[in-house]
Amino acid sequence: MKILVVEDDDRVADALVAFLGRSGYATERVGSGMAAIEALGPDTEAVLLDLGLPDMDGIDVCRRIRGFSGVPIIIATARSQVEERIKGLQAGADDFVVKPYDVRELLARIEAVTRRSRAAAEPGDGDISLTIDGVHFDFVNRVLLADGVPVDLTPKEFDVLAVLARYPGVVVPRDRIIREVWGTDWSGFNRSIEVHVASIRRKIEREWLIVTVRGVGYRLTGV
């Protein structure tokens, strides 16, 4: 597995690359947003992305990567404001850690996002497609069509929708969505679910398709 480390601080980057190397990961380190976009290749399994880059904001880098790749992205930054986390998630990031972080936690997050990415790329044993009121889910190819038109979802948005689509008409608790999509039981991702659901509703232009069950979770309706 190769991890692309996007960090302009040499001291931070050197320590991180050394730790990842001792943990068994191959790494490539770049110090700018453009270099990150150019370095991303088919063998890259995860991106650790700093936001304070010298040539462009990390949020823009995340958004541009998402335009052509579904590689897992973990934003690692000193920006701790909730608004920054929301921006990162909306741009397509899979996870967000605030500096200074525990490298063991970072390693666990890397393992979680790459594990989910590999699992998502493999067909499961259940249904491979589902159509609800003009919205077609193709779980194998990770494609969503609304009235025959492709909908541009981020990988995490598709993951959230896929969890709900596996249980059509059933209320899926928030903690289950967090566990299946983010691989954690941390309730801090509740806000992330809200952000992703709002974005999905807007993109498919069917706000009623995902019903919010207050205090419990969400339900995919129309079945």
TrEMBL record:
Keywords: DNA-binding, Phosphoprotein, Transcription, Transcription regulation. Residues 2-114 form the Response regulatory domain. Residues 127-222 form the OmpR/PhoB-type domain. The keyword DNA-binding applies. One of its GO terms (biological process) is regulation of DNA-templated transcription. Residues 127-222 bind DNA. InterPro entries: CheY-like_superfamily, OmpR/PhoB-type_DNA-bd, Sig_transdc_resp-reg_receiver, WalR-like, WH-like_DNA-bd_sf. One of its GO terms (cellular component) is protein-DNA complex. GO terms for molecular function: phosphorelay response regulator activity; transcription cis-regulatory region binding. SMART domains: REC, Trans_reg_C. This is Sensory transduction protein RegX3. The lineage of its organism: Bacteria, Bacillati, Actinomycetota, Actinomycetes, Micrococcales.
